[in-house]
Design brief:
Pfam family, one: Lipocalin_2
Oligomer: single chain
Number of strands: 8
Strand content: 35-45%
Helix content: 10-25%
CATH topology: Lipocalin
Keywords: Signal
Protein name: Lipocalin/cytosolic fatty-acid binding domain-containing protein
Family: Belongs to the calycin superfamily. Lipocalin family.
Number of helices: 2
InterPro entries: Calycin, Lipocalin_ApoD, Lipocalin_bac, Lipocalin_Blc-like_dom, Lipocalin_CS, Lipocln_cytosolic_FA-bd_dom
Shape: globular
Structural class: alpha+beta
Largest sheet: 8 strands, antiparallel, barrel
């Protein structure tokens, strides 16, 4: 099996497991604790997501690049391509509660100005597969790290 197909199957299994956990636990959302932020930095490629109003349905090659800033915040660069044209948005992520060990972040985008939740719901031990969402459970992304 090709490596990419194997990653996709693994991630689809993760999404199914996560959704089942959400349904079984009701309103409880499990969030990663003690995320190693330095290991999380880099480029993540989206392989699945729930549809959202701020992402075009025909976007391809969607990716997010995270870079740790000197002050502990994270520079966020989200990119995708629609009709061969690159679209991107930049922002800053920071811990929602600096005293918490949970991987709950806020992301502030500059244009258009907005702030959203970014919760790491799952990360494998090798930091190669991640599931990200938020408290509303209407946003969900599955990403792989290359």
């Amino acid at each position: 099996m090709a490596a990419k197909a194997k990653h996709m199957l693994h991630c689809l299994f993760l999404v199914a497991s996560l959704l089942l956990t959400i349904v079984v636990n009701g309103n409880a959302t499990t969030v990663v604790k003690n995320l190693d932020l330095k290991r999380y930095m880099g480029r993540w490629y989206e392989i699945a997501r729930f549809p959202s109003f701020f992402e075009k349905s025909d976007a391809v090659d969607t990716r997010a690049t995270y870079t740790l800033n000197y002050n502990g915040t994270v520079h966020v660069l989200n990119e995708n391509w629609v009709g061969g044209k690159r679209n991107f948005i930049e922002g800053i992520a920071y811990k929602a509660d600096p005293k918490s060990n949970e991987a709950k972040f806020k992301v502030k985008f500059h244009v258009p100005p907005s702030v959203g939740d970014y919760w790491v719901l799952y990360i494998d031990q090798n930091y190669q597969h991640a599931v990200v969402g938020g408290p509303t459970k209407i946003f969900l992304w599955v990403s792989i790290y290359f």
